[in-house]
Specification:
Layout: H1 9-16, E1 24-29, E2 37-43, E3 46-52, H2 58-73, E4 91-93, E5 96-102, H3 114-131, H4 144-154, H5 160-174, E6 183-186, E7 195-198, E8 202-206, E9 213-216, H6 217-228, H7 232-243, H8 250-276, H9 290-301
Antiparallel strand pairs: 1-2, 2-3, 3-5, 4-5, 6-9, 7-8
């Protein structure tokens, strides 16, 4: 994630002590993403990822960390949070809630092939089913209400053509009803850079669960499709992998074009917000909002049915 909070060696070493992972050897900020501050941390006990949560409700943070531990217990390749002797999954560091998680093997890929998409689809369905019974799960923090609120705040800041497009899409999405779609905990941000691979198409890790919450499972599939599948072949592989674990309902198939638009809108808004209402930080990544505007335009002009 972008580095908003600087962590010194001495304060990090003191924070790590209750975890009994040995001496701190090294730590380095990770400049990627948009929301939290992340560091690679190396101790005598191994390599980890430290996350400082810049604007996360502690109650939601408890859920995010509990979710990752639950999924790891279920056999999914998710980071496992370190626990101190008092059972705490996070503690304050530099005035921010902070957690240390296992560092998973592999690396992300920029251009996935159909088999990568098939594996990700199957893994996403397994994630949905494994997290279905988790108690006290919050709503998707960037769900319909967030999209409406942030969109309205951004409207006066945009050029006329973008504002007109956004206003029209907000009105369209406000008229959608997802109540009949299967719901549960979703990852909500499973982009290519949040999946690690070892050798060919062997999945090594799923990362960044800090947008997770309850929403339509189909929305999660649309988020993945929008980032992973620039053509029909890779989209068909993604859907085939997913439906091999959890078949889709008729209502989900009918809702696909609108839900895919909603997923494009969500990330267009997130990037517009970062550009027009930025937060200060030491290393801040601001991604191009135009990628998702163009995707949204494409889906509005030529809606396509779900393959399979």
């Amino acid at each position: 994630m972008s580095v908003y909070t600087t962590v010194g060696r001495a304060e990090l070493a003191a924070w790590l002590a209750p975890l009994e992972l040995g001496a701190l050897l090294d730590h380095a900020g990770i400049a990627a993403g948009m929301q939290n501050s992340n560091y690679f941390v190396t101790t005598d006990g191994g390599r980890f990822v430290l996350t400082l949560f810049e604007a996360t409700d502690p109650a939601a943070l408890d859920f995010y960390l509990r979710l990752q531990a639950h999924l790891a217990d279920a056999g999914l390749p998710c980071p496992r949070p370190a626990v101190d002797a008092a059972g705490r999954l996070w503690r304050p560091l530099c005035g921010k809630p902070a957690a240390l998680l296992s560092c998973l093997p592999g690396q992300s890929i920029e251009t996935p092939e159909a088999e990568h998409c098939r594996v990700v689809g199957a893994t996403l369905a397994r994630l949905h089913l494994a997290a279905a019974g988790l108690s006290e799960a919050p709503a998707n923090p960037c769900g319909a209400a967030w999209r409406q609120t942030v969109g309205e705040r951004l409207l006066p800041l945009l050029p006329a053509d973008e504002a007109a497009l956004l206003a029209d899409e907000l009105a369209f999405q406000a008229g959608q009803d997802w109540s009949s779609l299967p719901q549960g905990v979703i990852h909500a941000d499973l982009f290519r850079d949040n999946v690690l691979w070892q050798d060919d198409a062997r999945l090594g890790g799923l990362l960044d669960f800090y947008f997770a919450g309850v929403d339509a499972w189909l929305f999660d599939l649309a988020v993945v499709a929008n980032d992973w599948c620039p053509d029909d072949g890779r989209l068909a592989a993604l859907v085939d992998g997913y439906t091999g674990v959890r078949p889709l309902t008729a209502d989900e198939r009918a809702a696909w074009p609108a839900v895919r638009r909603a997923a494009a809108l969500r990330f267009w808004l997130l990037r517009l917000e970062a550009r027009h209402m930025p937060r200060a930080g030491e290393v801040v990544t601001v991604k191009d909002p135009g990628d998702f505007r163009r995707l949204l335009d494409q889906f509005r002009l030529a809606p396509a049915a779900l393959p399979g």
